[in-house]
Write a structure and sequence with these properties.
The protein is mostly beta strands and 52 residues long. The protein is 0% helix and 56% strand. It has a four-stranded antiparallel sheet with strand order 1-2-3-4, with no helix packed on it.
Length: 52
Amino acid sequence: GTVEIWDKGTYTLESRSENEIKFTLKGKRLSGGYVLLRLRDRNWLLFKRRGQ
């Protein structure tokens, strides 16, 4: 398939465990704190943290 660069910037990893990754994005389109949560197997849920 086609790959498109949608945003440009940096990230800071805050914490990482087997089922959760917390990080901060500093991009042109996306910025603030985010969390990736493992649901099952290889499925992940991404959400923006409150107050970010």
